[in-house]
Amino acid sequence: MKVTKGFFGTLNGKEVTAYTLSNSKGMEMTCLTYGGIITKLLTPDREGKREDVVLGFDRVEDYERNSPYFGAIVGRFAGRIRGAAFELEGKSYQLLKNDGENHLHGGKVGFSHVIWEAETFEEQDRVGVALHYVSQDGEEGYPGNLNVTVTYTLTEENELLVDYAATTDQTTIVNLTNHTYFNLSGDLKEDILDHELTIKSDEFLQLKSDLMPTGEKIRVDGTPFDFNNGKQIKEGATSVYEQNVLAGRGYDHPFMLNTNNDREIMLKDEKSGRVLMIETDEPCVVLYTGTQIEDTYKVKGVQARKYLGLCLETQGAPDSINQPQFPSPILRAGERYESRTRYVFGVE
Question: Where does beta-D-galactose bind (predicted)?
Fold first, then answer.
């Protein structure tokens, strides 16, 4: 197992470094100091052929110009906040409106568009990189100095562990995730409509036309949102169900998980044989099927388009600061925010 370091580019006069983690089983992951972006992830198919299973770019300029959060760490708050505003301990906070009237994924810059500090580690059965960033009090409108560390760890068992940790000196809100777009066909040979997804979830959050949660939970029974026994993504893409249609004929929805750290999410691609299992301690996962990917650029030589990749964003519920029926995103001084998501790659 090893970690290698390389130059990826320069952004606003600052160098962007790429770190590549690799094991002896043929798995390799490359991440950037810019946005903590997972820019490449090589895994073998059932024939042993290693191919890239994530969307990304080869140049840092493309990430700044075209990227819909490909592979990035998203924060301080993943998802949307209604009206780009919230109240905390009797004080009102106004955030940037970067998604219509709402606030999305931490704002115009957010954690996805800054350069993180990095420190690597190598052990006998695991290697990794710890990324560190201090979000200043008032950044993007959020209160408190937030000290954040996100650690990527690759093991010999083809596991990618993503650990999030944060502390604050003032009461604030935190909801972190990773926005990697997966495509298990390998090197983007196919879109993701034939991928089969299983999610252990009996309820999803109803969305309005602006993709903001209404606060209502809908039972998945009898809808294209019932992934408990597995189904192909194309069922939602071809559905006339209102919630699929408003998401651009697909999904952009939070699913409330029935269980944690219990093989709760499985993604499969029959042609390649690749399987991705995801476990998390977060209360929900946002399934986004790439319905807003524009066709004005290329992704690793492939024309960008709808359904080229899908995201499985493990996180707290969007707008949870304004919707107290969901788990609270509040973090106070002296407390520690911690979360882990585990991705395991295999074949069938």
Answer: 179-181, 252
Q: Is 291 left (phi over 0), alpha (psi -120 to 50) or beta?
A: alpha
Q: Report whether 194 belongs to an annotated binding site.
A: no
Amino acid identity, residue 113?
A: H
pLDDT average per 10 residues of sequence, the chain (348 residues): 97 96 96 98 97 97 94 98 97 96 96 98 96 98 98 97 98 98 98 98 97 97 98 97 98 98 98 98 98 96 97 98 96 98 98
CA–CA separation, 158 and 278 (whole Å) = 12
222 contact partners, CB below 8 Å, separation of at least 6: none
Q: Is 36 within 8 Å of 111 (Cβ atoms)?
A: yes
Number of domains composing the chain: 1
Produce one character per residue of 37-47: b if its CB has 16 or more CB atoms within 10 Å, e if not: bbbbbbbbbee
181 annotated ligand binder: yes
Say how far apart CA 136 and CA 218 lie, in whole Å: 38
- Residue 214 CB neighbour total at 10 angstroms: 12
Residues labelled catalytic: 179, 313
Is 132 labelled a binding residue?
Answer: no
CATH of the domain at 84: 2.70.98.10
pTM passes above 0.70: yes
Range of the domain at 50: 2-347
